[in-house]
Amino acid sequence: MKGKSMIGIIGAGNHGTLMAMLVAQSNKYNVKLVDTAEEMLSRSHMYMENLLLKRISKGLIDYQDYYSIFSNISVSTDINSISPSETVIECINEHQTSKINLISQLDSIISQNTLLLTTTTSLSLTKLAASSDNPSRVAGLHFFALPTASKIVEIVSGLQTSQETIQKTIEFTETLQKSYALCQDFPGFIANRIMFSFINESIGAFAMGVAERSDIDKTIRSITGMNLGPIEMADEIGLDFVLESLKNFHKETGDDKYKPNPLLVNYVSAGWLGKKSGKGFYDYQNSI
């Protein structure tokens, strides 16, 4: 492991865990995964272990890969432990105030030359970057699907983002063997701007009784060639996350196509969050 540079990842939820896996499996970096909650780090380890064991059972990796990935990851509840990182990736929950506070806090922890990437899906990168003393080093790194599954990454420029930062982000993305698309700081960037309105409209069609959810998903899968239909995708992403993102898009754009459908709001209120909770628009009780 000597000679590898450090990548700091903040937030040990599913997205942060998968980001840590993705970076670690490149075998080019030491990953420091940080979360203030010990419980989140324990859950992260179990989640990662289960995913890797499933890959082994499918013949996608072997035990040498398994141990290599884990050997490249260390965890901590101390945010100061990421101070040597050449790149820090923020993967905390999609709440603007929390992200702003974190980015501001990092100014006193990491070097001014450290690349700072945020994985926001729906918040203004320009607003987030403005909370840093050095907003030129902040860029967006948005995976539409899960980081380990996504084939393409959106690299997002805020108004203050320097060309040097974008070039560093491109080079980092290429070490992860991902394709990339460059985009500017508009609500939803490229993929989510289109897909979340698509999801919202599909939920609306189901709520109005246009068709059953399975028929909506089957039709869209057939037309687009996607692996998941829009309602299945919402369950996979997490209905709470879909709802929060739609609220942010609606607030930023004023466009009612992003106004969350009342049925989605009710499902989240009921705790039906999709696959991760065992029930969403589909029932997953027998698969978790």
Question: How is this structure best described in words?
Answer:
With 288 residues, the protein is α/β, with parallel strands linked by helices. It folds into two domains: 6-184, Rossmann fold (3-Layer(aba) Sandwich), CATH 3.40.50.720; 192-277, N-(1-d-carboxylethyl)-l-norvaline Dehydrogenase, domain 2. The chain has eleven helices and eight strands. The two termini are 35 Å apart.
* SS field, number of helical segments: 11
Instruction: State which percent range the strand residues make up.
Output: 5-15%
Mean pLDDT: 93
Structural class: alpha/beta
Contiguous runs where pLDDT drops below 50 for at least 5 residues:
none
The CATH topology name of the largest domain reads: Rossmann fold
**How many strand elements?**
8
Major sheet? 8 strands, mixed
The best one-word shape is globular
Report the CATH architecture of the largest domain. Answer: 3-Layer(aba) Sandwich
Q: What is the domain tally? A: 2
| CATH class placement of the largest domain | Alpha Beta
Radius of gyration over all CA atoms, rounded: 19 Å
Strand order of the largest sheet: 3-2-1-4-5-6-7-8
Helical content band: 40-55%
| Secondary-structure element series | EHEHHEEHEHEEHEHHHHH
Q: CATH homologous superfamily of the largest domain - what is it?
A: NAD(P)-binding Rossmann-like Domain
